[in-house]
UniProtKB/TrEMBL annotation:
The keyword Oxidoreductase does not apply. Keywords: Coiled coil. Gene3D superfamilies: Spore Coat Polysaccharide Biosynthesis Protein SpsA, Chain A (3.90.550.10). Pfam families: Glycos_transf_2. It comes from Acetobacter tropicalis. This is Glycosyltransferase 2-like domain-containing protein. InterPro entries: Glyco_trans_2-like, Nucleotide-diphossugar_trans.
């Protein structure tokens, strides 16, 4: 509905539970306009109810970014799906490109932005990125679509089916099939890890059907981790999957603790640097104060000297002895 009513050069789709920089549209539009971008992507933070927020570094994969900009999906390093997260609220789209492409949102309850974002991305000729953080994504809102996906658990499968059919229709599937399969496993895995446990088996069965119809049997994934996830989806027990998830979370926690220690050390090192700079600044202030006092004394002495000379110059004795001094000065000039 909003897309049909929009008239601007660019368009963005925002979630009502997120927070956005007051200058987001101005900054994003200015850069998109300057680069004549079909899609412009900016960075974001994730925020929680306790007030904490963290940079979502994974929302734009730096390792995937091409050297040149703007770029297209054909320029991306590695898997074309790994470069972004396929939601809409961190992307500015050129409206007439959407209309030309005929790509609209899929009418499903959840995961409806996957097809829209990916399809427009595959057809875009000019994609650009900025490191400006312009959005803050709410991760903990109860009742949000993201947190109630179990009510429409099939939507994630419907979304990738729509995307696959689009790639086939536009004759892109053969070129990007390997990337699609490798991305699909991670996409399915995330949904299984975060779905309400009561709906786990139902969702996994829907995923199995799609995997079989897509002809993924015997496919060589690009990592052992993806191969394991594929096997767990296709044949592992719920306990096997939960054990892997538990192990992954432990590893993630360890990695986060390691990063936290590194950040704490960086802060400590910066504190030491600040302390040294603060000391040097104090020394400089003391030197400046000392020089200011010295300058004040010299100025005072100079004023006293000038005052004394002025008194002498206006004294009766100075005026009376002027002829003698004049004669003496003249004799010196004659002698020279």
């Amino acid at each position: 509905m909003g897309l049909k009513k929009a008239t601007g050069e660019y368009i963005i789709f925002l979630d009502d539970d997120d927070v956005f920089d007051i200058h987001m549209l101005e900054k994003a539009y200015t850069e998109a306009k300057c680069k004549n971008s079909d899609i412009h992507v900016f960075r974001s933070y994730e925020i929680f109810d306790d007030g904490t927020n963290y940079p979502m570094e994974w929302s734009i994969n730096k390792d995937s970014l091409p050297e040149k900009e703007p770029f297209s999906c054909y320029d991306v390093k590695g898997n074309v799906f790994d470069i972004f997260v396929w939601w809409c609220w961190d992307k500015l789209f050129k409206r007439n490109k959407i209309i030309e492409n005929g790509i609209l949102f899929q009418e499903i309850r959840t995961s409806n932005d996957l097809f829209f974002c990916c399809a427009n991305y595959f057809l875009a000729e000019r994609v650009s990125v900025t490191d400006d953080v312009l959005a803050y994504h709410n991760m903990t809102r109860e009742g949000s679509l993201s947190n109630t996906r179990h009510l429409s658990y099939k939507c994630c499968v419907e979304a990738v089916r729509k995307l696959r059919d689009f790639l086939i229709e536009r004759e892109l599937y053969d070129h990007f099939k390997n990337d699609f399969f490798n991305y699909l496993i991670l996409f399915f895995d995330w949904h299984l890890q975060t779905i309400n446990v009561d709906f786990f088996e139902n969702l996994r069965e829907e995923m199995r059907k799609f995997i079989r119809e897509s002809g993924m049997d015997g496919f060589q994934f690009d990592s052992a981790d993806k191969t394991l996830k594929y096997e767990l989806i296709m044949s592992g027990s719920v306990k096997d999957y939960q054990d892997v998830i538990s192990q992954e979370r432990k590893m993630n926690i360890m990695e986060m603790k390691k990063k936290l220690r590194e950040k704490e050390k960086e802060v400590s090192d910066k504190d030491d640097e600040i302390s040294i700079l603060h000391h040097e600044l104090q020394v400089l202030h003391e030197k400046i104060n000392s020089l200011s006092e010295m300058n004040a004394r010299l100025l005072e002495d100079n004023n006293k000297t000038m005052h004394s000379l002025n008194n002498i110059a206006h004294s009766r004795t100075w005026k009376i002895t002027y002829p003698v001094r004049y004669v003496g000065s003249t004799i010196k000039k004659i002698i020279k």
